[in-house]
């Protein structure tokens, strides 16, 4: 038995990690799969997604995924449909990781910049939680993780819209805990 299994296990658990092919999302997929969870992830980049899945298969991890542009409501709905099929209608862990950032002075942000950042960083995880709610309940042990940022707590230059989106995620996290936690 390896060191991981001696500490704890996620065997039998299922997880969806958005934006799991690089950065923090990649590390989360590796950890969850390393502890035995079956993981589903998504990326906008099909080539990168296929390369990561092959890499994870080589490590003996149970990871599947699909191409998804989380800024699209239709893609989010298809993603949850795929997760529903992959995990027989049950999801234990939803990790809202995918996000975007645009560095600009406040006066230089365009309405398109604002919409892109808020859609990716706030609306998408909000909607995914709504869509995943029945799956999380069906598992009997549902958990949601939001990846935020220090920018959601303190002021940083060139990040006003990103910071606002992450501050909103922090508040959404608290409210969902209040409404959905046992």
TrEMBL record:
Name of the protein this chain belongs to: TROPINONE REDUCTASE
Task: Give the UniProt family note.
Answer: Belongs to the short-chain dehydrogenases/reductases (SDR) family. SDR65C subfamily.
Sorted alphabetically, the keyword list is: NADP, Oxidoreductase
Question: Which domain of life, per UniProt?
Answer: Eukaryota
Any GO MF annotation of the entry: oxidoreductase activity
What Pfam families is this protein classified in? adh_short
Which InterPro entries does the UniProt record give?
Answer: NAD(P)-bd_dom_sf, Sc_DH/Rdtase_CS, SDR_fam, TR
């Amino acid at each position: 038995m390896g060191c991981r299994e001696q500490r704890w296990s996620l065997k039998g658990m299922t997880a969806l990690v958005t934006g799991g092919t690089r950065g923090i999302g990649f590390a989360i997929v590796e950890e969850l799969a390393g502890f035995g969870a079956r993981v589903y992830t998504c990326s906008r980049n099909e080539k990168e997604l296929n390369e990561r899945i092959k890499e994870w298969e080589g490590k003996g991890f149970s990871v599947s995924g699909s191409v998804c542009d989380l800024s699209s409501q239709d893609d989010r709905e298809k993603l949850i449909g795929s997760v529903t099929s992959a995990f027989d209608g049950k999801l234990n862990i939803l990790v809202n990781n995918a996000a975007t950032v645009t560095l600009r002075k406040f006066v230089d942000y365009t309405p398109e910049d604002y919409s892109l950042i808020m859609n990716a960083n706030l609306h998408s995880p909000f909607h995914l939680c709504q869509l995943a709610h029945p799956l999380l309940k069906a598992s009997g042990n549902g958990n949601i993780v939001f990846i935020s940022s220090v920018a959601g707590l303190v002021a940083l230059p060139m990040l006003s819209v990103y910071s606002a989106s992450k501050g909103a995620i922090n508040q959404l996290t608290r409210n969902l805990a209040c409404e959905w936690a046992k």
